[in-house]
Design brief:
- Two copies of one chain form a homodimer.
- The first copy, chain A, has about 450 residues and is an alpha+beta fold.
- Chain A folds into four domains: about 15-140, Beta Polymerase, domain 2 (2-Layer Sandwich); about 145-260, Poly(a)-polymerase, middle domain; about 265-335 and about 380-435, Poly(A) polymerase predicted RNA binding domain (Alpha-Beta Plaits, 2-Layer Sandwich); about 335-380, no CATH class.
- Chain A has helices spanning about 1-10, 15-35, 50-55, 75-90, 135-145, 150-165, 180-190, 190-200, 235-250, 285-305, 350-360, 385-400, 405-410, 425-430, 435-440; strands at about 45-50, 65-70, 95-100, 105-110, 115-120, 205, 220, 225-230, 265, 275-280, 310-315, 320-330, 335-345, 365, 370-380, 410-415, 435.
- In chain A, strand 14 and strand 15 form a beta hairpin.
- The longest helix of chain A is centred in the N-terminal third of the chain and has 22 residues, at about 15-35.
- Chain A starts with a helix and ends with a helix.
Chain lengths: ~450, ~450
C-alpha cells in the first residue's frame, strides 16, 4: 500500500508551471474584485476561499473562490444585489453568469479555471447568518492546521474519491466535499492511516468531537462547529462506496484505484426502465435536484403501492431544461390480481364490513389459514407505463412536489427505456442498470 | 331468531316411522354381532355408540355404531383380527368392507344406513389405550347429561353446521364432530344461547374446564377428559366459518342458514390453478389425507421460495386412486428477475464475499439506500408449470412426504386448471376459486 500511495503522491501536486499560471489568474481576479468593492461601504473585506486558498487543489478543474464578506447587519437582498454587481462588473471581460446556492453568486471561466465570486457575512464564529459564512473560518482553520505533507495527502484522498465517483458535495452527487476530505486527513494524519481506520469503521461512528447525536451512517464533525455533521450531505450509497473502496484498496492496493472507474452496464434491462421526462423553468440546481429527487421517491412509493417492484430509481437533470425520473422495475407488467388481508374473524365489526364490502367490490373473499379474512382484488393497472400516465393525470398533487406542478402541467412524457435517447442521457440513465466501478474492485 | 329456531326444531326430530325403521335395523345388527362375540373370550361386551345411542341423530345419513369392548390386556393385533372377523361374519349378508381409523373397522350398508362395527378397549376413564376407548364414556356421559330438549337442540346445531359445510370430524373436512356439537349444547343449554355466546367469543377462549393450555383459535374441552381439546381437530377456516355464520344468523335470522349453502365460483381463475395429480396405493383415508395435505403445504412453500405467490391451496382425493394437490397462484408466469438483499456495507467479511460472489453469479450488484448490498438475480423458472415439474424431478425428497415417494415415482402429472377434468373433481377443485356459502350470508 505504501508503495502505491507514494507513487500517487508524486502525481498529485500541481506542477510549478500550473501553480504559476493558477496564481496569475487568482491574483488578477482578486485585484479586479478588490477594485470593485471600494464602491460599497457594505463590504468589509475580500478573501480567497476553497481549495486554492488552502493549497489542497488538484491540477484538473481547480476553481478559484473569492469570498466577499459583508457587514452582518446588511439585508440578504442587498447582499445578493451588491455581490452580483461586483461579480459582473469585475469579471465583465469573461462572460460572467449567475449560479445558485443558498444565495446567487457570479461565476466565470478564465482559461478553463472557474472563478466563483461568493457573498457571505462577516460574523463571529458560530453566529452564522448564511451557509457560506463558515467558509472563511474553514479556510483559516485549515491553513493553520494542515501541514505541507497533509495538504498533499488531501490531494491523494481527493483523487481517490474522484476516481471512485464519490467526490462532490452538490445535491446531484451527494458525495464527499473538499472540506470533508481535509477534515478526514487532519483527523487521521495521512491517507494511509485514513484507509486503515475507515476499513474498521462501525455504523454511526463519530469522527471528531460533538455533544450532539446524529442519525447518519457515519458522522463527521466540522472542527469549527461541533453541532454540524458534514456526513449528513453524503448519501448512504456514497458512504458505502467509500468504505468498500477503502477495504478493496487495503486488500489489493493498486494504481487502478486512482484511475476513473468504469461501470459495467447490463444492457438487457433497458426494457425494465420506466422514465418520466419533463421540461422545467430554470432555477437553482440545488432546488431542481431536490425536487426531482423527492418526485422520484414519492413516485417510487406510488409504483410500489400499485403493485410494481421498484428495484432502483434515479433522478437526472441537465440543470437547464430537461429532467428525468427513472424507475428500474422488476417487471413492467404485473399480475392482474393480488391479495388484501382483512381483519381476523374474531373481530366482529371489522370482519362483517370487510366481507360485505368485498363481496361487492372484489373477486373473491375467504378465510385464510391464519384466521384473517382475505379478499382477492383486481388491479386497475397491470402495465407500468399506463399506471404512471393515469396516476400523473389524476394525482399530480400527491406524487409530485408542489414546486414542479406548473412544469408538469405544461407537459411530460412517460415511456420505457428502450426508446431513443441521446447518448449523454443514456449514459446517465444507465447508472441504474450498471454495476458501479467501485464494486468492480471486488472482482 | 326464536321464531326461526322453533320452525327448524319441528323439522329436525326424525319422524316416528324413521325412528322405528332405524331401531329395527339397529336391534337386528346388535343381535347379529352379539351372537358372534360369544365365540371370543377376549371380548367383554357390546354397546351402541355415536348419535344413535345418544338420540342426537339426524334423519338423513345417521350411522349406527356398535362398539366391541375388548379386555385391556389383549394385543392390538388380536383386537384388530377378532373385531374384523366378528364384523365380517355378523354382517356377511350385507357386503361388509374394511374402513380405517386408528384401527381398521368393518362397515356395511343396510337400506341406506351405514353400520360401523368398531373395536375398543374396556378401560377405566383416563387410561386410554386407543382413540376409540373414550367413545363409550362419551355415550354414557351424554345419555346421562343431555335432556330430551337438548337432544333436539343438538340436532338443530348439527343441521346448521351441515348446511354451512363445516360438519364432520374426518381429516378431509376438519369440521365439527357430532360429539363437539353435543358438548356445545350441553355447555350453553340451547342453540339460541350457543349463538349468543359464540358471536362474542374471543380468540383462544376456553369452553369447558381444563388446567392445560392450548394453542388453537378456540378451545373446547372434552367433559370426560380435561386434557383433551376437541377444537384441535377443526381447521381455523372452519372455526372462522362457524363464528361468522353465528354472527350472520344473529344479525339476520332466516331459514336459509339451515339449507345447503352454495358457493359462488369465479370461473375466470381456472387458468391460475396449478395442479399436481398422482395415483396412490390405497391406504386409510386419514393417512392419505394427512400426506396430501402436508405435500400441499410444503409445495406451497417451495412455490413461494421460487417467487410465485400462492393465493390458496387445497388437497383432494377420492380416497381410492387419485389425489390432487391444487395451488391457486396470483400469476403462473412471474418476472425474470428479483432482488436479493445482502449484508450491510459495514459488515466487512460478509459484504466482501457477497459482492465477489454476485459479480460472478448475478445480474447486478449495488448498494441500496438502506445501506444493504443488493444483488439482482435471474430466476431459473418464470413458469409455474415448468418450475413444479423441474422441482418434483429433482427434489422429490424435499417437497413430498416420505409416505408418498413410491406413489410419485410411479408417475404424476403437473398441469394448469384449464385442462379437462371430470365434473366431480372440477367441483372439488373449484373450492379454491369460490366464495364459500358461509360468507355469502353477509351479502
Amino acid at each position: 500500500m505504501k508503495e502505491i500511495i507514494s507513487k500517487i503522491a508524486k502525481t498529485t501536486i500541481p506542477s510549478k508551471i500550473i501553480q504559476k499560471s493558477k496564481k496569475e489568474i487568482a491574483d488578477k481576479v482578486y485585484k479586479l474584485v478588490e477594485k470593485e468593492i471600494q464602491k460599497y461601504s457594505e463590504v468589509v473585506e475580500l478573501e480567497f476561499g476553497g481549495s486554492y486558498a488552502k493549497d489542497t487543489w488538484l491540477s484538473k478543474n481547480a476553481d478559484i473562490d473569492i469570498f466577499i464578506k459583508f457587514k452582518k447587519n446588511i439585508s440578504e437582498e442587498k447582499l445578493e444585489n451588491i455581490s452580483k454587481k461586483i461579480g459582473f462588473e469585475s469579471l465583465k471581460k469573461y462572460s460572467p453568469y449567475v449560479r445558485y446556492s443558498q444565495h446567487p453568486y457570479v461565476e466565470a471561466k478564465i482559461k478553463d479555471t472557474k472563478i466563483n465570486i461568493v457573498p457571505c457575512y462577516d460574523v463571529k464564529i458560530g453566529e452564522w447568518k448564511s451557509a457560506a459564512d463558515r467558509s472563511p473560518f474553514h479556510t483559516k482553520f485549515m491553513k493553520k492546521s494542515l501541514t505541507r505533507k497533509m495538504r498533499n495527502e488531501v490531494r491523494i484522498l481527493k483523487t481517490f474519491l474522484k476516481s471512485n465517483k464519490i467526490y462532490g458535495a452538490e445535491i446531484a452527487k451527494q458525495g464527499f466535499s473538499g472540506y470533508i476530505s481535509e477534515v478526514l486527513i487532519l483527523q487521521y494524519g495521512s491517507f494511509e492511516n485514513l484507509i486503515k481506520s475507515i476499513i474498521k469503521i462501525k455504523e454511526k461512528q463519530i469522527i471528531g468531537k460533538t455533544s450532539k447525536s446524529f442519525d447518519t451512517a457515519i458522522v463527521v464533525i466540522d472542527p469549527i462547529d461541533g453541532n454540524r455533521n458534514l456526513a449528513a450531505a453524503i448519501s448512504n450509497e456514497n458512504i458505502g462506496k467509500f468504505i468498500l473502496s477503502c477495504r478493496a484498496f487495503k486488500n489489493k492496493p493498486s494504481l487502478e484505484f486512482f484511475k476513473n472507474q468504469k461501470s459495467k452496464i447490463s444492457n438487457k434491462f433497458w426494457n425494465n426502465l420506466l422514465i418520466v421526462k419533463f421540461e422545467f423553468k430554470i432555477r437553482s440546481p440545488d432546488i431542481i435536484w431536490g425536487q426531482i429527487k423527492r418526485a422520484t421517491s414519492t413516485l417510487s412509493t406510488q409504483l410500489e403501492l400499485g403493485g410494481f417492484t421498484v428495484v432502483r430509481s434515479k433522478a437526472h437533470t441537465d440543470e437547464q431544461i430537461d429532467a428525468y425520473l427513472i424507475f428500474f422495475l422488476e417487471s413492467t407488467i404485473i399480475s392482474e390480481i393480488y391479495q388484501k388481508k382483512g381483519p381476523e374473524f374474531f373481530r366482529n365489526d371489522g370482519s362483517h364490513s370487510f366481507i360485505s364490502k368485498n363481496l361487492k367490490d372484489s373477486e373473491l373473499v375467504w378465510i385464510g389459514n391464519d384466521g384473517k379474512i382475505i379478499s382477492l382484488e383486481k388491479r386497475k393497472h397491470v402495465n407500468a407505463e399506463k399506471f404512471m400516465k393515469e396516476f400523473l393525470k389524476k394525482n399530480l398533487n400527491v406524487g409530485i412536489p408542489k414546486g414542479l406542478h406548473s412544469d408538469f402541467k405544461r407537459g411530460y412524457k412517460v415511456f420505457l427505456g428502450n426508446k431513443t435517447l441521446s447518448k449523454s442521457i443514456k449514459e446517465e440513465i444507465s447508472e441504474v442498470i450498471s454495476v458501479d466501478g467501485t464494486l468492480l474492485h471486488f472482482n
